[in-house]
Amino acid sequence: MTATPHSAPPRPVLLGLNSGLHKHDAAAAVVDAVDGQLLAMVEQERLSRSKRAWGESASEAAALALELADSPPDAVKGIAFGWDEAAYHRSIGQDWDRNAFLAQNLPEALLSRLHSGADLDIDFIPHHLAHAAGALALAGFDNAAWLVADGRGERQGTSWGSARRGQLEVAGEVDLSRSLGVFYALAAEWAGLGYDGAGRLMGLAGLGGNQALSSNPDSRLAQPGLSQPRLPQPIPLELGRPDGLRPYRFPGLGPPTRDRHRRFYHAQRAHLWRRFAEAFPHQPAAAADPHQPVDALPWASFAAAVQQRLEEVLLHLARRTLDAAESSASVTSASSSQPHRLVFAGGVALNCSANGRILQELFPDRPQDFFVPPAAHDGGVAHGAAAALWRRRNPEAPAPPPLRHAAYGPDSSEAAIDRALAQAGLQPVATGDAALTQAAQLLASGKIVARFAGPAEIGPRALGHRSLLADPRRRSSADRLNTLKHRDPWRPVAPSVLAEAWSELFDSPPSPLTAFMLLAVPVPLRSRPKIPACVHVDGSARPQLVEADALPDYHRLIQLFAQLTGVPALCNTSLNGPGEPILHRPEQAVSSLLEHPDLDALLLGDRLVLQPHRNDRNRAGEVNSRSEEAFEDLGELMRQIETRRSP
């Protein structure tokens, strides 16, 4: 009789969490406790369907992340949160009860282990160190300089330092009352784009063109129909003195008060809005719905000035960070003999234009030495906390291999996909490679195709698994996508580009950031007629590099489209509506198809489903008419901008 072998013990893992209680972006991540590799990550907003998951716990996301990693509760060998929660709650004047906090944020199975006396360490990693640790781990860097800029940490708005073998050293920080994330968010709010409108403001900045105000005191504001005053301090954000402790300052903003951590936002808002009004002849734009399109042309030069000043400060910070790392005792002589690497994290690191400026000026010949993680926002500190805990336990271990893709989120089973289609009464017209072939044909004929397939991506960018796709050769594709999503007509869409054909479209080399759509690059004149839908008004694009071994099915779809059209790229934007997170479940994708007649088809898993209303010619005519009218409006807007740029 053959003996039954004992089952192998589960792989040991570490659980990282970002609690959204009194905060936002609740998330959970699971990391291999041996080699430090990311196994799974879940953002709570996808589950609750509440954008950024304000005030939500991480328990639901944690339970799902452990399930995705195939990790039972007894496999968890440590838990880490991406905040020093005690310090954070003191800073906002809130009492904090550790046991109550854990009860709200841990899945029931882990709470049972704790209550049973299991030896399970729980760590609370300072917020900016969690950001930095996560970026280092995903970059695959052992030694590097690090920079973090976001809305706030426990008491910091910006911090920087260096790492050796992943061990973090803080070289400097700026108080959260001087937060760059809050500065940019308040500028977006002042322009009527909403406090969470950073992405909209970045897109609007491209319309400001060459009229953006620089640090030159004699700069003038050029707006159609407006006076042209001389503005000594157009944007209230300046570089600090070279020999000063602060790398930047907000002129006129008083020193931090004793309760600065509790009241910093209100003080910064009052100061910045007053200074914005002094420099720009506009009142704050009151948006009835910050998720709906607005007439933003009057604020284009303002947005460009804010963006330019942010880039100047971040570039200065990056240089200062690299200089500090060069002289830091934590860097060995062996590593200092080589050019320094830099990781950049925090919500501000999602600014593609600023990242492009840093790469262009500091890493022009070595793009592989600059890295930004796909989940650079606060959700990413779930992974960062686990990465910091892993590094603490494995100080001599090599860094995990560099991240190749961002698809570490939830997937949908074949049964769930079939059930969603059956409930809607829909039948696929093709499956497998035939579905990709027909989808490519639809895209080449000018149709819009949604794709919901494979594990969800982590971070705010859709990278082909939860995407709306269109033909980049047609300038109207951008308008149709923006109309479909109820977005501002001036917002750009990104090109997803075959890795092997990158040089056909771009002169600048790819970098680790291009895999995650985190870098703005110039589009050469020769390429603009090939992908006009993906070229922003300022001549830039935010491309995604698609490699066959990292994203095989998405690569195959673009490859099929290229065979039909000669263009190795597709327009890509996220599959979600205004103010909602990226879609999470197959039935949500099916509902999106049924609720949006302008959407022509859906790739759901390996199945292609056509729009059931596709034969409604009257509806199609109305859609085309609306699209062309909006396109003409955008064209007129672009002509105005070009006129302003002319000498």
Task: Please count the beta strands (DSSP E, at least 2 residues each).
Answer: 22
* Global structural class: alpha/beta
Order the strands across the largest sheet as they lie in space. 13-22-21-14-15-20-16-19
| Largest sheet properties | 8 strands, mixed
- Taking all residues together, what is the mean pLDDT? 88
Strand content: 15-25%
- Distance from N terminus to C terminus (CA atoms, Å) equals 92 Å
Q: Radius of gyration, Cα only, in angstroms?
A: 25 Å
Number of helices: 20
Uncertain segments are: 210-233, 329-337, 616-635, 641-647
Percent of residues in helices comes to 25-40%
Which word captures the global form? Answer: globular
Describe the structure.
The chain is α/β, with parallel strands linked by helices and 647 residues long. Helices cover 37% and strands 15% of the residues. The chain contains 20 helices and 22 strands. An eight-stranded mixed beta sheet has the order 13-22-21-14-15-20-16-19, with helices on both faces. Strands 3-2-1-4-5 form a five-stranded mixed beta sheet, sandwiched between helices. The protein has a five-stranded mixed beta sheet with strand order 8-7-6-11-12, with helices on both faces. Helix 14 packs parallel to helix 19 (586-595). It is globular and about 60 Å long. The model is unreliable at 210-233, 329-337, 616-635 and 641-647 (pLDDT under 50).
Detail the topology: elements first, then pairings:
Elements: E1 13-18, E2 27-32, E3 38-43, H1 44-48, H2 59-68, E4 76-81, H3 85-91, H4 98-105, H5 108-115, E5 121-124, H6 127-139, E6 144-149, E7 156-164, E8 167-175, H7 180-190, H8 198-208, E9 238-239, E10 248-249, H9 260-279, H10 300-327, H11 333-336, E11 342-345, H12 352-362, E12 370-371, H13 381-393, H14 414-424, E13 430-431, H15 432-444, E14 449-452, E15 466-470, H16 476-484, E16 494-498, H17 502-505, E17 521-522, E18 540-541, E19 544-546, H18 552-565, E20 569-574, H19 586-595, E21 601-604, E22 607-610, H20 617-645
Helix pairs in contact: 6-13, 7-9, 7-10, 8-10, 10-12, 14-19, 15-18, 16-20
